[in-house]
Amino acid sequence: MKFATVKQKNQEIAALVVGDHFFPIPQINTTLSTDWYNTLGEILEHNQLDKLISWFNRTGREYLENTNDLGQPLSDINFSPLYRHPHKIWGIGLNYRDHAEDLLEKTPSLIPASFMKSDTTIIGPNDTIFIPTQSSKTTGEAELGVIIKKKCKNIPREDWLEVVAGFTTIIDMTAEDILRKNPRYLTLSKNFDTFFSFGPLLITPDEFADIMDLSIATVINGEVHAKNTLSNMTFPPDFLVSFHSEIMTLLPGDIISTGTPRAVQLRDGDIIECQIDGFMSLKNPVKDLKNFQ
User: Fold this and answer.
1) Are 161 and 149 spatial neighbours (Cβ–Cβ below 8 Å)?
2) How far apart are CA 6 and CA 160, in angstroms?
3) Mean pLDDT for the chain?
4) Is 185 helix (H, G, I), strand (E, B) or coil?
5) What's phi and psi for 74, nearest 5 deg?
6) 153, 250 Cβ separation under 8 angstroms
7) Are residue 36 and residue 173 in the same domain, yes or no?
8) Is 80 exceeded by the pLDDT of residue 101?
9) Last residue within a domain, chosen from 42, 76, 110
10) To bridge 155 with a disulfide, which of 42, 125, 162, 245 should be the other Cys (CB 3.0-4.6 Å)?
11) 102 falls in which pLDDT band (50, 70, 90)?
12) Which residue range(s) make up the domain with 56?
């Protein structure tokens, strides 16, 4: 099952994706007398996702596939981030060997190089990434995001999908020159406004035979700068979910951004893109705030 968050009448609302059409939840509720929450954040927070999937598989999919009355074509859609206020965003640094070599660091082998980000970093598809005035080298990094479905603690690796709502595309930013000055500046270098883009799709786990077979690419201005497969992660998603659930209780809507095959320096006027098999591409333009001082 696929979800998006779309802008409609100055509101950001959840939509189901069927084929090449998007079906906003409020219209579904009105037409079919359903009672789903209108936003993806609320659907997760109020534990409606499994019920919504069950309804979709029983009757919803067939109805929506046979009518376009409620649907909007892709050409008419303006996307927002999937939601704005997750409880937590976990980032995973140096989870591919190539990225560790970029920063002249050793790939962690015992535990993940985790860090946290604020929800004030969040932007959505086609929103502008701003290179801050404090940085002369900001990088962008395509990543797979894992979205947590329900409150959980101490989850065994083999049970990880029971607590996963789905996956998404992410572009994570780093003020790399600030980070290089001192590794203790990691939190600062990761938390400037506009430094976390995610969406446009959340795709549930049942849509994938094996998530580890997917390839991921960081693309700048249409050119692939880095590409790898998820199977080459040092710490795969099942481990990351289990590990972080042992550290801290995970809550609905929490995001684990699983790391990038390689970071690419961003410059004013660039278009950065995250491409992952099976997903719509996530794209964001770049502006350097130093050019507007």
Assistant:
1) no
2) 29
3) 93
4) helix
5) -55, -35
6) yes
7) no
8) no
9) 76
10) 245
11) low
12) 2-76
Number of domains in the chain: 2
Specify the pLDDT at position 99.
47
The answer on pLDDT for 105 being more than 60 is no
Please name the amino acid found at residue 184: R
pLDDT tens per residue across span 111-157: 898 999 999 999 999 999 999 999 999 999 999 999 999 999 999 99
97: amino acid identity, one letter: R
CA distance 235 to 239: 6
Enclosing H/E stretch for 143: strand 138-148
Answer positive or negative: Cα dihedral of 61, 17, 55, 238.
positive
- Specify the pLDDT at position 98: 59
Query: What's the CA gap between 276 and 215, in Å, rounded?
Result: 6
Q: Tokens at residue 242, please?
A: 């289990």
**Domain harbouring 224, CATH code:** 3.90.850.10
Structural element, H or E, at residue 287 = strand 282-288
Q: Which of 189, 167, 171 is nearest to 180 (CA)?
A: 189
